[in-house]
Amino acid sequence: MNRAISPLFVVVLIIATCGLIYELIVGTLASYLLGDSVTQFSTVIGVYLSALGIGAWVSRYFERNLAARFIEVELAVALVGGISAPFLFFTFSEGASFRVTLYATVLLTGTLVGLEIPLLMRILKDSLQFKDLVSRILSFDYLGALFASLLFPIVLVPKLGLVRTSLLFGLLNALVGLWSTFLLESQLGTTLRLRVKGVIACVLLTGGFVLGDRMTLLFEEQLYHDEVVHAQSSPYQRIVVTRSARGFSLFLNGNLQFSSVDEYRYHEALVHPVMQAARERKRVLILGGGDGLAAREVLRYPEVESVTLVDLDPAITSLATKYSELHELNHASLEDPRLHLLNDDALRFLAERPPTETWDVAIVDFPDPNNFSLGKLYTTRFYALLKGALGESGVAVVQSTSPLFARQSFWCIDRTLRAAGFQTRPYHAWVPSFGEWGYVLASVAALETRHALPDGLSFLSDSTLPTLFQFPKDMDEVPAEVNRLNNQVLVHYYEEEWRRWN
To answer: What region, left, alpha or beta, does residue 67 occupy, with left being phi > 0 and alpha being psi -120 to 50 degrees?
Structure first.
């Protein structure tokens, strides 16, 4: 038995890694499919941790053939955890009671994982002193959690996606179960039945892994109304492009970013009011907007000498140049010699910029603040850095979600900009794919119209532009707190308001 002790601690490491991977997969998938990312991820983690406790408590009722029971539990974890992502995708696309299925899956997976370590500790109790047994088991358990937390966002999601990751780690669990029939052979008596079960589990999960990409595409085609023509995972998000008879659309983590049919309304409204209000328009900063569509509008102005575009995800900026339809739609803006592209975090970029480097115009085109990572880009801290990046007469615009569907969120952004020292002029535009959409102009000095609009626009004109600044009663200002790094109140506003419409 002593020779089997060291390999069994490797088993603990693998068990801990797989267990946390399953938790991260289900939490990410819940956020992706249901939105409400903070709430979903938090509740998934809470239910999973509680299920671990249930599993540990249930383990007390296993009294005989502990080695066999451990292997059977390991194989059950392999199958349940391994198929969790494809099963939940299928459940969601079929319109079943998804939340019930989601938390039942979390509860079952967590309970099974919670059984493993107590059973293994009891198997090893006669081979080591208690203090050594506990310290080693827990050390390897926590080390496995570290491996999982690093592997998941850096390697697994961008390279394999959620479906193939869950199947891969299910296969790893099944292999551990099969390996354990050899490590614990002296305590098992007969091993044939368990080994046959292990081989069957490995074969099933291997087949699922091989077909994982096809399954993912099938599930996504059921999730979207139109044909999926491009799909990839980056370290930051799931990128999907769909096409219909009218045009194509870009989705990030299931959220529509634009439709080629009406994106011109959104981007003209985003860019031209701030360009019209700017005293100088030589140097322009675009934060976000890696699709190149905001840059297309900026580059209509011949007086623009340089554009700095900062977008976190190189997969998006690569798509903007390599996907032919998007490349045509953005007029090859990312290849314009006046544009300098950086793939960087916008908050870090502003914090680390040379103090002498400023811009005349800043266009902030981030996704909506549906999680804390994005919410930090809507805080007083970020807006203070943005203010420092503008020249004395510089102006900025911030896309600010819908003043109709997320009214308090919209006015929270306006209030936060004012708290950071900006004078603001909020406005809105109708974009059919989104509905009523909001923006906020921001400047240190008083905002005023300085220029006429360029020719060739499809939506805005000098006569219609002033109407964007008029708000009907159902979109007028409402009380809202300032969004700060230490409270992220905007994320809570956003989730609560959009939940009503979804």
So the answer is: alpha
Per-residue burial over 346-378, b if 16 or more Cβ lie within 10 Å, else e, is bbebbeebeeeebbbbbbbbbbbbbbeebbbbb
Residue the block writes with tokens 């439709």: 259
Cα–Cα nearest to 42, from 492, 497, 498, 377: 492
Handedness of CA 377, 380, 383, 385 (dihedral sign): negative
Radius of gyration of the chain (CA): 27
pLDDT by 10-residue block (mean), the chain, 502 residues: 62 82 82 67 86 92 89 93 88 74 91 89 77 75 82 82 90 91 85 92 94 81 83 86 93 90 97 95 96 97 96 95 96 97 95 93 95 91 96 93 96 97 96 96 86 90 93 95 92 89 73
Best CA proximity match to 9, nearest among 147, 164, 182, 141: 141
- How many other CB atoms are found less than 10 A from the CB of residue 108? 17
Sheet holding 255-259, edge to edge: 227-233, 238-243, 248-252, 255-259
CA distance 174 to 180: 10
Q: At what angle do helices 157-183 and 192-210 cross, to 10 degrees?
A: 170
Q: Which domains does the chain have, with CATH numbers?
A: 2-221 (1.20.1250.20), 226-258 (2.30.140.10), 262-501 (3.40.50.150)
* CA–CA separation, 281 and 399 (whole Å): 19
CA distances from 282 to 191, 467, 488 (A): 76, 27, 34
**Hey, CA dihedral for 434, 436, 440, 446, is it positive or negative?**
positive
Catalytic (active-site) positions: 365
The residue among 104, 85, 66 whose CA lies nearest residue 21 is: 85
Angle between the 66-82 and 2-34 helix axes, to the nearest 10 degrees? 30
Is 164 within 8 Å of 212 (Cβ atoms)? yes
CB atoms within 10 A of CB 37: 22
CB proximity list for 115: less than 8 A, separation 6 or greater:
55, 56, 58, 59, 62, 73
Contact 295, 334 (CB under 8 A): yes
pTM of the entire structure? 0.80
* HSE-up of residue 253 (Cα within 13 Å, Cβ side): 19
- In the structure encoding, which two tokens stand for residue 224, read together? 């979207």
Give 484's DSSP letter. Answer: -
Is residue 429 a contact partner of residue 468, using CB atoms and an 8 Å limit? yes
In whole angstroms, what is the distance from residue 310 CA to residue 371 CA? Answer: 20
CA dihedral 308, 314, 316, 322 (to 10 degrees): 100
Q: Identity (one letter) of the amino acid at 44?
A: V
Torsion angle defined by CA atoms of residues 282, 286, 292 and 297, in that order, rounded to the nearest 10 degrees:
-50
> How far apart, in whole angstroms, are the C-alpha atoms of residue 67 and residue 183?
10
